[in-house]
Amino acid sequence: MLKLWNQEAADWRLALRTETEGAGSRLSVEADGKTATLWVGLGDAETVTAETVRRAAAKGIKALKGLGAKTVVLDPAAAKTLLEQDGVDAMAQGVALALYRPRSWKTEEQTDMTLYMASVLPSEESNSLTEAICLARDLVNCPANHLVPADLARTMTETARTYGVETEIISAEQARALGMEAFLTVGDSAGHAPCLIVLRYRGGAPDQAPIGLVGKGVTCDTGGYCLKPASSMKGIKGDMAGAAAVFGALLALARNKVPVNATVVIPSVENRIAPDSFIPGDVIGSMSGKTIEIGNTDAEGRLILADAITYALRKEGVGRVLDIATLTGAVVGMFGFTTAGFLCNDEAYCTDFMEAAAVSGEQYWRLPAFDEYRKMIESPVADVSNVSNDGCGTITAGLFLETFTESHPWLHIDIAGTAWVDSPKWEYQTNGATGAAVTTLYHLCKAMAKEA
Ligand code: BES
Ligand code: MN
Ligand code: ZN
């Protein structure tokens, strides 16, 4: 990725500096003979965090790209003075994420910028996280016709195996034998077969119960018979961003040999229309034994996640469980595209999570789980309904999943707003997938390693 500068000719230098006045991010250029320097302001030295550096570096490199720069030397001096190695890492990460390009099917190739780092390189841990974010972005950006559940399973297991992660793909037939009716109800009528992807990373003590990381892997969500309007269909290939997040985090754990045990469980399906697809009014079973009334076939994520959670608890013996999904449009109404909502039933777990988010720089906000909300998903004919009869779509979707957690410490994250941006909200984002939650989940698991 980044090489140390060997004093070769470069047309630009990108450097950061604090300012005594102004909110930061100001750009200015100084030229001295051969190399021109683009300075990006960091604002007041007192307020600079890794996130400030990430954004400033991203802003600078995007400006240089706009100016047609071919060879750029990144100068991390100011970042290093302020934040030590964390500053160097943040600068490199901001640049790499800002220059990320999804795979293209254009017949003409674009050329990359040549990048050097002056004096000091980013850490291995930082590099592996940057790569994990880009890998998650790649998966989410991939068109649904190039990434059906079997493709997702193959890509993930092949990559994970190279880092010593144990992998298993559970077929539709095996899932049927396990009684995973909620999972199969969504996926089994689609043209491309569903599968459950299991990745086991064992870096911790053999007797330590793994954390269960359950990610929604809907490779395309048409809504099913409750068909989405055409205007809502554009991003439906990205409905596996939860799966991409847990996968990216697990790879980073494995690459850094973090002493923790973690098991990823990904239910992967297409939500499509077929003659025998499920319809509103159906009552189905689930692996847990609980029955579910279908109110809306577009609330498919919680159905497959319910069985994946039961599977993680009963077959994988996980302790803490975490599920993450692009689950509800309602979370976008609440928090927009910058902040993900979460529910948690355990205070220590919640604290660990918020501390991890503070390290990663991502924004999360906890939602309340009042008893009145649980009433909203009661069904007259089944144990639970897959839609709320009284609003509060994000909370009730989470509480639907709580029904299946068997009193384990549980954390539920809705990244429907943050996983995808049509225009960048922070400078280090690019149009499309963001790689949301990869770093926060990594830091959460890493912190748990310290506690164990
Ligand atoms: N995958 C969608 C949620 C979503 C919406 C993700 C917008 C990204 C952007 C999910 O499966 C869904 O369709 N949810 C419904 C639930 C409703 C029918 C209860 C929603 O939010 O509209
Ligand atoms: Mn849906
Ligand atoms: Zn969905």
Helices, strands, pairings?
Elements: E1 3-4, E2 12-17, E3 27-32, E4 35-41, H1 50-66, E5 71-75, H2 77-83, H3 85-99, E6 114-117, H4 124-141, H5 149-161, E7 166-170, H6 172-177, H7 181-187, E8 195-202, E9 211-215, E10 217-221, H8 241-255, E11 261-271, E12 283-284, E13 292-293, H9 301-315, E14 321-325, H10 330-335, E15 339-344, H11 347-360, E16 363-366, H12 371-375, E17 384-385, H13 393-402, E18 410-414, E19 420-421, E20 432-433, H14 438-451
Parallel strand pairs: 1-6, 2-4, 2-5, 5-6, 9-11, 9-14, 10-11, 13-17, 14-18, 15-16
Antiparallel strand pairs: 3-4, 7-8, 8-11, 12-13, 15-18, 19-20
Helix pairs in contact: 1-3, 2-3, 3-4, 4-8, 7-9, 8-14, 9-13, 11-14
The structure holds ligand BES, manganese (II) ion and zinc ion.
Residues in helices, as a percent range: 25-40%
Give the CA-CA distance, first to last residue: 34 Å
Task: Let me know the average pLDDT.
Answer: 96
- Figure out the total of helices: 14
Rg to the nearest angstrom? 23 Å
Low-pLDDT parts are: none
Q: How much of the residues is beta strand, in percent? A: 15-25%
Number of strands: 20
Ligands bound here? Answer: ligand BES, manganese (II) ion, zinc ion
- Helix/strand-derived class? alpha/beta
- Largest sheet data: 9 strands, mixed
- Overall 3D shape: elongated
